[in-house]
């Protein structure tokens, strides 16, 4: 009888967990569990969690790069890219999407990285908010902006592009009166994603990326976290729809190959040479975007 009771108890707990997971997925997919804010409120949410850095010896407004971290939050990898971008004369906006929502490192690894919280569809609202913050700075040329996203941040970039191509804002943003002089990604001249997540529950299907924003992708051949095949299929659909996506699959590389302080995960291996090449590759793309 005790064994039977334990089996029933464990089964009930398992069903409750599954129901909770299903509820999270349903809420995120339908949007009913996603907090909705005006753009002004979204800006206020992020304001204390977006660090703006400017290059030295700046005498005119400069292009800026909005940086979107992976699911674990801001890490050393963003610092390395930011240093090279500043040396090249770009401003950088480091967006801490997790801290803005009071998600610490533990919460990030157990909730965001497991897709229980903060899907890319919701986080896409951070991009127009970061653009608005860039426009507040006279030191930034807000008509020359670029997006860079790593992993979950790359997923976020793909979703933002997809919504922009549809002419609407991310679902976490309340509708605003149409402004013919502005779009959700106004001023963005290039979008870059490194090893983005492209599988379920990504909404973007590749058939609706904007034609006016070049999209560059670096994928990792040995990526077991965000398998490159999912992205390749998505980009094939985009090309079939008339929008080519510039993507490269780097042989031998794993997920987060450019993160020098990654988690203790055998699926992730740091490669300093590849990290240097990735930063150099991005500088070339930015030079093309900001002639």
The fold-level CATH name of the largest domain is Rossmann fold
Strand arrangement, major sheet: 1-3-2-4-5-6-7
Helix and strand succession?
HHEEHEHHHHEHEEHEH
Profile the largest sheet.
Answer: 7 strands, mixed
Give the class-level CATH name of the largest domain.
Answer: Alpha Beta
How many helix segments?
Answer: 10
Short description:
Residues 55-160, 187-289 form the Dienelactone hydrolase domain. It comes from Maricaulis maris (strain MCS10). With 291 residues, the protein is an alpha/beta fold.
What does this structure look like?
Helix 2 (39-47) packs across helix 7. The chain contains ten helices and seven strands. It is α/β, with parallel strands linked by helices and 291 residues long. A seven-stranded mixed sheet has the order 1-3-2-4-5-6-7, sandwiched between helices. It has two domains: 1-32; 34-289, Rossmann fold, CATH 3.40.50.1820. It has helices spanning 2-30, 39-47, 76-87, 97-100, 105-112, 120-123, 126-135, 152-165, 228-240, 272-289; strands spanning 50-53, 62-68, 91-95, 140-150, 188-194, 215-220, 246-250. This is Dienelactone hydrolase.
What features would you highlight for this structure?
single chain; 291 residues; alpha/beta; Rossmann fold; globular
Reconstruct the topology from this structure:
Elements: H1 2-30, H2 39-47, E1 50-53, E2 62-68, H3 76-87, E3 91-95, H4 97-100, H5 105-112, H6 120-123, H7 126-135, E4 140-150, H8 152-165, E5 188-194, E6 215-220, H9 228-240, E7 246-250, H10 272-289
Parallel strand pairs: 2-3, 2-4, 4-5, 5-6, 6-7
Antiparallel strand pairs: 1-3
Helix pairs in contact: 2-7
């Amino acid at each position: 009888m005790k064994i039977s009771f334990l089996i029933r108890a464990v089964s009930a707990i398992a069903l409750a967990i599954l129901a909770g997971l299903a509820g999270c997925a349903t809420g995120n997919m339908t949007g009913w569990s996603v907090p909705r804010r005006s753009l002004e409120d979204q800006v206020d949410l992020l304001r204390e969690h977006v660090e703006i850095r400017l290059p030295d010896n700046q005498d005119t407004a400069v292009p800026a790069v909005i940086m979107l971290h992976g699911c674990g939050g801001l890490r050393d990898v963003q610092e390395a890219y930011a240093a090279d971008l500043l040396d090249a004369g770009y401003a950088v906006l480091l967006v801490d999407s997790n801290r803005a929502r009071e998600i610490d490192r533990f919460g990030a690894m157990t909730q965001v990285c497991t897709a229980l919280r903060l899907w890319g569809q919701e986080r896409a609202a951070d991009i127009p908010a970061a653009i608005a913050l860039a426009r507040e700075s006279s030191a930034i040329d807000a008509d020359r902006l670029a997006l860079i996203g790593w992993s979950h941040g790359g997923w976020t970039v793909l979703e933002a592009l997809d919504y922009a191509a549809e002419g609407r804002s991310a679902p976490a943003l309340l509708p605003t009166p149409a402004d013919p002089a502005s779009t959700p990604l106004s001023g963005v001249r290039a979008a870059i994603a490194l090893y983005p997540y492209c599988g379920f529950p990504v909404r973007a299907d590749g058939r609706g990326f904007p034609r006016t924003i070049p999209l560059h992708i670096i994928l990792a051949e040995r990526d077991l976290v965000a398998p490159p095949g999912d992205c390749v299929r998505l980009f094939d659909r985009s090309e079939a729809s008339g929008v080519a996506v510039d993507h490269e699959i780097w042989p031998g590389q794993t997920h987060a190959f450019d993160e020098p302080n990654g988690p203790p995960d055998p699926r992730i291996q740091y490669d300093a040479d590849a990290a240097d090449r990735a930063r150099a590759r991005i500088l070339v793309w930015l030079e093309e975007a900001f002639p």
